[in-house]
Amino acid sequence: MAQPPLSQQIRRLEGELGVQLLHRTKRRVQLTEPGRAFLDEARVTLTQLNHAVEVAQRASRGEFGRLVIGFLGAATYSLLPAFLKVFRERFPGVEIELHEMKTSELIQNLRQRRVHAGLLRLPVRDDMLSFEPILEERLVVAIPEHHPLAGKHQITFGDLSGEAFLLPPRQLAPGFYDQVAGLCRRAGFSLRVGAEASQLQTILNLVAAGMGVSLVAESVTQMDGRGVVFKRLPEPAPTIEIAIAWCRDDQSEVLQAFLQVVRETTHQSSLVK
After folding, report:
1. For 184, left (φ over 0), alpha (ψ -120 to 50), or beta?
2. Residue 160 gets which letter from DSSP?
3. Residue 117 and residue 257 in contact, taking contact as beta carbons nearer than 8 Å
4. Is 206 exposed, middle or buried (0-12, 13-18, 19+ CB in 10 A)?
5. Which CATH class is domain 5-60?
6. pTM confidence score
7. Please, what CATH class does the domain formed by 65-135+241-269 belong to?
8. 65 touches 253 (CB < 8 A)
9. pLDDT tens-digit map of 17-52
10. Which CATH code fits 138-240?
11. If DSSP codes are grouped into helix, strand and coil, which group holds residue 21?
């Protein structure tokens, strides 16, 4: 009778190792000391192998890694918290890094692959990037609380003809800057910039100080508006469109997992009008 296959394999393993793993008699077979040492190490190796397989499978689902997100200040109020809450619940093993920046900075960092995904204001055209609109939001006017227009129930854009506008520099937000200039032209006056600031909170502080007025996304009204009053404009009110952007050829599992969360959360919240 030929030796069973298992016995043959053990014989071959002993030959490869150059040690005897089993002590064999007619009545019993037991491990030798080298055999016990080999078994203990083999169990550790198999455990590590199984762990490595699990880690690789989870990484393929986007459950491990690092995700760098750039965003506009306005996106933090109605968008980013919702996305991050769902993503952290599903993918707690992913390290998330957040950077607030303007649209032009975001585009540059996306192109240089320093940022994996960005929330930015449309319109933007760039052949290297993909864009998906996720929010269309009304613009409202921010004015000082003691301004003569603060007591009016509703104001028109023409009411702002004598005002200085507080805006981000055009090179940082060209689309938004040109949109405000266009609104001024259609209302019959030219844009007059009183001051430029890159951060939204700085602009609101300048408004509160009476330095001028500004246009902001309606979600910004959720902020503590001490010294600032927010006024709606008549329909059809001007709007801004926010999109998620990423490098067109970036197929990383972590990025794809984040994009899926953005799409699901956007759909469930009906953020896109």
Report:
1. alpha
2. G
3. no
4. buried
5. mainly alpha
6. 0.65
7. alpha beta
8. yes
9. 888 888 777 778 788 888 888 888 888 887 777 766
10. 3.40.190.10
11. coil
